[in-house]
Structure formats: C-alpha cells, structure tokens
Write a structure and sequence with these properties.
By secondary structure, the chain is of the alpha+beta class. Helices cover 41% and strands 12% of the residues. This is Nucleotidyltransferase domain protein.
Length: 316
C-alpha cells in the first residue's frame, strides 16, 4: 500500500519556481512538483508541511506558521555563523593590531532574520582609513591576510563599488561573508529593524517568507535588478503602518492575527495598487510620496523608489 504524504497548501504552490536553482537542502521546494509527479503523487509535497492545509486564507495562515518554523534560524545555525564572525573578527584585529580597528556584525545575523543562504555582514571601522586610496589599500591587504591565514576559500575586493566591500567564502562552512569598511549605516539599520520587530512582531515570519519567495525567483540581489532585504523590510514596514495597525504589538500566533491575510494584502498593494511612476515609498512619513517632490526630472522615475529612514535624502 502506497502512503500518500500530506500536500502543501497555497504557499508551496507560490514558492515553487521552475526557474529557481536550489542552493541548500531547504530549497527542496524547487523539487516538490517534479518529485511528486515522479513518484506518482498528484499533489505537491512541501518539506515544511505538518498537516493538510485548506485552500483558504486561514489555511495560508497555518502554512506560513509552519514554514516560519522551518525557515527560522535554529541555535546551531546561529552558533555556526557567530563562530565564523568570531574568526573573521580575530583575523582582522590581528592584521591591524597596531590600529584602532573596530569589528562588528550587522544585517540579518544581528537582527536574527537570516535564512540558510544569507550572508554574514561584517563592518570594519578605522579612523585612519578615511582617505579613499588608503581604504582601497586596506581592503586589499585585509583580503590577502584572510587568504594567507587559511580562513577564506575564496575572496574578492570591490573597492570601486557604491558600497566598497570585500566578499569572501569561509573555508570550513562555505558561508558567504561581506565585509564593509567605515559604513556604520548598516549597524544603525539593524538597530532600527530591532525596534520595528518590537512594534510589529509579525515582521519576523512575514519577512522570512518574503525573502525566501524572492530567493527562489533570483530576485534578491539589487545588481541584477532584484530587491535587497533592507528594501524589502522597508516596504513591509510601510505596509504594516497602513494595513497592519490592528496587529501592532500582537504575537504572530495570537487569535487576532492572520498571517495569510497580511501576506496576500502585501502582494495586492505592491503588485496592483501602488503606481510606481507617480510615487515613492516613504517610511519616515509612512505614506506614498509624489516623486515630483523628491526627484524632479529623474529619468528613472518609473523604478521602485524607497526612502531610507536613516538617510532622509536617500532613495534606492
């Protein structure tokens, strides 16, 4: 007798993407439909499924709760990443021990909103590296040292990028590490997101689902036309201030919260209702700002425009 596994619900269908390329075991949803057909099942099998979900908003809510438990960082994953950060920090401090160098972590590891495929974001600060040429030299020497001590499997320096960065792959874990220099904005952004999480606890499950949704469609990197995690969370913050006030300070699993309803409304707002030709997304004012008021004559006016609340004049 063949056992029929529990199918996924609406979210598994949304997550499945024939264009996606799996990078970890948690990206098994890429295989779900193909595996189901191969073994003679008529329904998609989701690795996070714990029950049969109804094809309703309530069923979507239950499925988001399960995928959140499946995606959210466990203690081991966090410990591994913190150990990678400790080794990187130690190596950088050793290389520049004669300088007043500060090394800190920011981004999704600091906010605990990381996925299995997420990078570790590291910030290196030093007052002596204010000059652009000095910064480029220090970046290259840092990269060389990480390779020399056997910490990096591979390393690359992008000193001419909009945000200068050293990208490395840690040898033992194969975790990607992005090292920024003298750009404290990332730490401020992480602290800001922590405050938002206190105000809207539903941010955590919703942002993990949305990040995975973009990753499976290769839409999570800005330099290929995608959307950064920071941009995505700013969109979510703006959305929650418009449509999520009833769930403010409510636990994601409380009876007053329906994560399925919030997710579908998020997609409706940003896919069908926002006129990107005419408005940008403001998180400071919690409204949609006419682009003429901010970017008069900009040739890229039709693109998604999100105001950074930590840099009032900055859009990205």
């Amino acid at each position: 007798m063949k056992m029929v596994p529990e199918p996924a619900g609406a979210l598994a269908t949304m997550m499945a993407s024939p264009e996606a390329s799996p990078s970890t075991s948690r990206d098994e949803c890429w295989y779900m439909e193909k595996a189901g057909r191969l073994f003679g099942y008529d329904e998609i099998i989701a690795p996070w499924a714990t029950k049969r979900y109804s094809l309703s908003i309530e069923g979507l809510h239950e499925e988001i709760k399960d995928i959140f438990q499946w995606l959210r960082p466990c203690r081991l994953e966090e410990a591994v990443r913190l150990e990678v950060f400790r080794k990187v920090k130690s190596a950088i401090k050793e290389r520049w021990k004669g300088n007043n160098v500060r090394v800190s972590v920011f981004g999704s590891l600091r906010t605990r909103l990381f996925l299995p495929t997420s990078d570790i974001d590291v910030l290196v600060e030093c007052e002596e590296w204010k000059d652009t040429s000095a910064m480029a030299t220090c970046m290259q020497e840092t990269a060389n040292y990480l390779e020399e001590v056997g910490l990096a499997k591979s390393v690359a320096v992008f000193s001419d990028a909009f945000v200068p960065i050293v990208k490395m792959v840690e040898k033992d874990t194969l975790v990607n590490v992005d090292i920024s220099f003298n750009t404290a904005q990332g730490v401020k952004a992480a602290d800001y997101i922590e405050k938002v999480k206190e105000e809207f606890p539903v941010v955590e499950p919703l942002i993990l689902v949305l990040k995975q949704f973009l990753i499976l469609r290769r839409l999570n990197t800005t330099y290929t036309g995608g959307l950064s995690s920071y941009g995505l969370i700013l969109m979510l913050i703006n959305f929650l201030h418009h449509y999520g006030m009833p769930v403010r300070r409510k636990h994601p699993y409380s009876p007053e919260v329906n994560l399925g309803e919030l997710l579908m409304r998020f997609f409706e707002v940003y896919a069908q209702e926002v006129n990107y030709d005419a408005v940008g997304i403001s998180v400071i004012d919690m409204r949609y700002t006419p682009k003429e008021a901010r970017r008069d004559g900009d040739k890229k006016a039709a693109l998604l425009s999100i105001e950074d609340p930590l840099l009032i004049t900055e859009y990205f």
